[in-house]
Amino acid sequence: MEESSEPARDLWTALRWEPSPEQLQDLIKLQELLRHWNRQLNLTRLVEGEDYWINQVFDSLWPLTEELKSSTSSRECIDVGTGGGFPGLAMAIALPGTRMTLVDSVGRKTAAVHAMASALGLSKRTRIRTERIEATGRDRTCRGRFDLAVARAVASAPVVAEYLVPLLRDSGEALLYRGQWSDADSTDLTKALKPLKATIHDVQTLQLPAGRGVRHVLRVRSVSRCPDTYPRPIGVPGKVPLGTAQ
To answer: Does domain 10-239 have CATH number 3.40.50.150?
Structure first.
C-alpha cells in the first residue's frame, strides 16, 4: 500500500540539511519511479513511507554533512554497486554540482537506474556503467578520477576498500557505508588498506531516526598512489580479501 510521499520536517532537522522545493519534488518523483520499476524488477523492499525516506534518502545523505554545505561545488563521484540507485541518485539530487557515475554488474538494474536518472533530468550529470567494479577500477577513464567513491551494502569492508581506493584522485575520499562496526572491524580494514596505500581518516556514527538502527561510515584516504596491482582480477577480492592473505 502506498504511503504519504512527503516526510516529516524533523527528518531534515536531523539531517542538518533541507532540500529546496525543487529537490524535494525530485525526491518524491524518485520514490514514484522506484515504485514503478520495483513492480517489474523487485529492486528493493524499502519503497514506502519511512522505509524510503529514512532507510533510503536519509541513510544515503547523512554522511555528507560537509559536502551538503557546498552542494554546488564541482565534484566527480562514483556509486559502486548502486542496485536500485542508492546512494547515487539521492546524492545527484542533493549535490547539484556533482557528476555521478553509477556502477552495477546487473544489467536490468542499471537499465532501471538509467531510466530513473533520465526521468529526473539527471542525464547530463550521470553516467551508468554495467560491469564488475574490478573492471571499472582498471579502466583508465575511471581509475584515479573521483573526489568521492561510495558503496552501501555491497560486501565486507576490506573487499569494498579494494573496489573504491583505486578510483580516488589524490585528494579524494572513499566512503564505506556500514551497519555495525567494531574495533576488530577497524583492525581488519586497516590491514586491508596497507597494501592499497590508504588509511582510515574518520569513522562517523549515527542512530537513524525512528529507531531504525545504528549506522557507520568509514572515510578512507590514500596516503600515496594505489599500486597498479589493485583491484585484483574479477572475483579475487571477494574470495581472498586483503588482510587475510598477507
So the answer is: yes
